[in-house]
Each structure stands twice: as structure tokens, then as C-alpha cells.
């Protein structure tokens, strides 16, 4: 009859083997913790929106995408975002402001007096 013997061979780990298993466990925990900290603090390949470059994470039903534009491309993307009213435009406008690209101010017509 076997009973509730956790080790069917009846052998237990020696102190040295227990120490090695403990060290392996600690190393694995530290490695997983390091990966977790890196994943939480790493902003990815492009970083955050700044200095005329816009990075937008676009959610979708299949996971999402990252839009990255700099210079004229970023200004064009932001112009479309400031003109739009959908969710993508809202997400893009936030990143445009972080990049320092603000909406274009409409020209104000000034009345000139006509003298005669």
C-alpha cells in the first residue's frame, strides 16, 4: 500500500540540494522581477511624444498599432486630428500637444477704416 508518501523512492533532498534549489528559485524570482520592472518602465522603441515627433498607440480589435511621425508628417497628422472628432483624433490630439504641435490659429480679419 502506497499511502500518502510524496516521494515514492523514499529519498529526501540533501541539505546541499535544498540550498541549490533555493538559489535557483531566488535567481528566477529576481529575473522575473527585473523583466517586470523593465516592461513597466520601458516606453518602447519610439519613446513618448516630444520635440515635434508624435507617437500614438491606436487600439483595435486585433491588438493595436503604433503610429509614429516626425516633422511635416507629424504636423499633417496633427492637423487632421484637430479637424476630426472621432476617438482616434482625440487620442492623437493629446500626443500632438505633448509634441508641441498646437492647432493652427484661424486668421482674424480686421476691419480697416475707409477714409475719404
Lateral strand order in the biggest sheet = 1-2
The percentage of residues in β strands lies in 5-15%
Rg (CA only): 30 Å
- The arrangement of helices and strands along the chain is HEEHH
How far apart the termini lie comes to 120 Å
> Which stretches of 5+ consecutive residues score pLDDT under 50?
none
Mean pLDDT: 82
| Amount of helix | 40-55%
| Class from helix and strand fractions | mainly alpha
Structural summary, described in words:
This protein has three helices and two strands, in the order αββαα. The longest helix is centred in the N-terminal third of the chain and has 27 residues, at about 15-40. The mean pLDDT is about 80. It has a domain at about 55-100. Helices cover about 45% and strands about 10% of the residues. By secondary structure, it is mainly alpha-helical. The chain has helices at about 15-40, 70-85, 85-100, and strands at about 55-60, 65-70. The chain is rod-shaped and about 110 Å long. The protein has a two-stranded antiparallel ribbon with strand order 1-2.
Annotation keywords:
2 strands, single chain, 116 residues, two-stranded antiparallel sheet, mainly alpha
Structure summary:
The chain has 116 residues and is mainly alpha-helical. The chain has a domain at 53-98.
Layout of helices and strands, plus pairs?
Layout: H1 15-41, E1 53-58, E2 65-70, H2 72-83, H3 87-98
Antiparallel strand pairs: 1-2
Helix pairs in contact: 2-3
Amino acid at each position: 500500500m502506497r499511502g500518502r508518501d510524496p516521494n515514492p523512492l523514499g529519498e529526501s533532498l540533501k541539505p546541499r540540494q535544498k540550498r541549490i534549489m533555493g538559489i535557483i528559485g531566488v535567481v528566477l524570482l529576481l529575473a522575473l522581477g527585473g523583466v517586470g520592472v523593465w516592461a513597466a518602465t520601458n516606453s518602447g522603441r519610439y519613446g513618448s511624444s516630444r520635440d515635434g515627433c508624435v507617437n500614438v498607440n491606436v487600439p483595435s480589435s486585433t491588438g493595436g498599432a503604433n503610429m509614429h511621425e516626425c516633422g511635416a508628417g507629424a504636423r499633417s497628422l496633427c492637423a487632421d486630428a484637430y479637424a476630426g472628432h472621432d476617438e482616434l483624433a482625440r487620442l492623437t490630439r493629446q500626443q500632438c500637444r505633448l509634441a508641441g504641435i498646437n492647432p493652427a490659429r484661424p486668421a482674424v480679419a480686421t476691419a480697416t477704416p475707409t477714409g475719404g
